[in-house]
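S1.2 Input.
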Amino acid sequence: MGLTGTIFVQELWQLIFLWGIVLGIATGVTPPLGASIATRWFVSRRGLAIGIMTNANAAGQVIFLPLLMAVIVAAGWRSALMIIAAVSVILIPAIWLWMRDNPADIGLAPFRSEKEIVSKRQGGYARGDFRPISIETVSEVFKTSTFWILSGCFFICGVTANGLIGTHLIPHAIERGIPQMTAAAAVGVMGGASFIGTTFSGWLVDRVDPRKVLAVVYALRGSSLFILPYVTEPIALFVFAVIYGLDWYASAPATTTIIAQSFGPERVGRIFGLVFVFHQLGGASAAIGGGWAHIQFGDYQYAFLIGGCMGLMAAGLALTLRTMGRPIPAIPVTSEFANA
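S1.3 Output.
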């Protein structure tokens, strides 16, 4: 509705309402739903599953951004929005017919490794599992340091992703004399690199401490932003696109895994939604702040440098997260189960 209505806007307030509020609400709802569904379907390989699912964003950018920029240049932005609206309409029946919230809806159990299956039969936990923090109400979530550290990290994630890069990268590139189509192609390259980085991040989260993965992601992102103010040629923009793209969405698997281990898989949707609020606040702040910095200083240099410093701060914050819950060793196999 918001996307279709935007095609016909004639006044600024209509654009703010439809694009800013209606589409903003819809965009904010999607990531928590996806994280919740992936957590319900996967126990083993959860990080990898979330990484692959998150790559849908990257795939969309690789496919659509160069195409949409070409349409905008040739026929205007309304024509580009018509294409997006048409694709969205086509997807609705596919989602309705084939997507399920829970594996139990079609008689399946969540995907588990053989070790976890044996451990569950015994009423125990597989090695490396965690007992979640005991939480009864949402207000108790706000009393945990884990929630606030993750929210702070995700605020910076929004600043350095949607706010700075999503809003100001292409205008910055055009100001430096880089053609519009080249700038859009660079964003497509970022999406391709993100596919690799996010998948690897998800794979890594299943094997090492997700806090360390999260710290590396933010450190790489912050470091890449120090490059951007000095980009003046297409080749340099593509180098930035690869480095930044590797960590563009790579924070999602680690963040979701930390929430699941800290608060329990059944609470991922609600708590990820609360944390994601800070992501969107960060994005909004940087979108406005980046524009203000451009007006005051004539370019985006200071905005990107501040974003780089904030990315390094997020890396440090991720390392201060406490151990999630308490490890629970698997219960030894008894003769009863050994003979079963």
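S1.4 Remarks. The chain has one domain: 2-111+133-324.
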